[in-house]
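user: can you give me the structure for this one chain? tokens are fine.
assistant: on it. calling the predictor now.
[tool input]
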Amino acid sequence: MPGDGSNRVEEINRAGLAAAVAVAAEQGLPAGDPRVLSGRGNLIVHLAPAPVVARVATLTAWTRSDPFRWLLHEVAVAGHAARHGGPVVAPTTLADAGPHHSDGLAVSLWEYLPPSARRPGAAAVGQALARLHLAVAGFPGKLDYLSGVRAQITDGLDALQRADVLDLAVLAALRERHAETLAELEAAAASPAIVLHGDAHTGNLLHSPAGWLWTDLEETCRCPREFDLAVMVGGLGADGAAALAAYADVTGTQVPAPEALAPFARARLLEAAVWTLGMAHQYPARYLDMATRMLAGVLG
């Protein structure tokens, strides 16, 4: 339908596909039959017949001041995790994993996993997150502190203001809520900062012959573990307790009380609302209803 954003999405996905194929050619990868696997926030392309997947920052790039930097952190942390036996989809070893600049877009390259309809149980999710945290504990690189709640929201609100998407009063209310959220997290009693996934929901776990593997570490950062735990249980409902117990069993930590996770859960809801508003501006047919509900939820 007119105005639903589909034309823009098709256009940017075509550009993303061309960028992915161009990087494949530069890296000497056979990619004569590229296949789009997903185009929700980033464009995910299997560079068939090569067993390599390209991740292209497309729609998500609109909400970030430096999309390349997010992919750079993702490749670095995932590569470290893979080298230390962590449960991640690894950057490809068949070429330079990047990220690469291609026609104004950021592109990274990853190992290909065949699609699977399997979904993890709660205990498997908790175990996978615990194993990831242990594998990246010694990551030597510099990472921002809580980048999802800080930069993701700041950049997203700035983009919405530049595009004149929201009423100025609504933007002001979101900025005020952001400041309150950051203050609440500073005051929250939590564990020391560690390297996190940053977006540890079950949709970012893929099944493989080696078990469940994490993908989409773009929001990796340093923060108390409670943030990842809050994101993990947020999508599990009543099964969240089983995931927390499994995590604690692997890491040897205590199961956190609900009140310890609550500030991080609220921060995540604000982050998700701002991100979804950015997606709704570009692709209203898919995201507008969701963004409207989430906006009401964080400002209600």
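assistant: here you go. The chain has one domain: 6-299. The CA atoms of residues 37 and 44 lie 5 Å apart.
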